[in-house]
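[Automated response] Your request has been received and processed.

Submitted sequence:
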Amino acid sequence: MSFDQIAPEALKLPPEQRALLASSLWESLEDPYDLTAGLDDHEAIALAVERDREIAAGIVTPISHEELMKRLRR
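Generated structure:
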């Protein structure tokens, strides 16, 4: 099943069931911040500076939140 098939059906559920479904789906995802959670301040700043350098050098191309969400839905 695709997102386009599931989403309209899920939205027909009562609010309580939608909340349970949303919670269940959220819990099934890996923590996107887990990779950086163990970094101390110095390491986190170094990572941010490196990411900024990569963007400035054209090594990576940033995308908008909207584009990220669109790609994740595919």
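Summary generated for your ticket: The chain has two domains: 1-30, 32-74. Residues 32-74 form one domain.
If you did not submit this request, please reply to this message.
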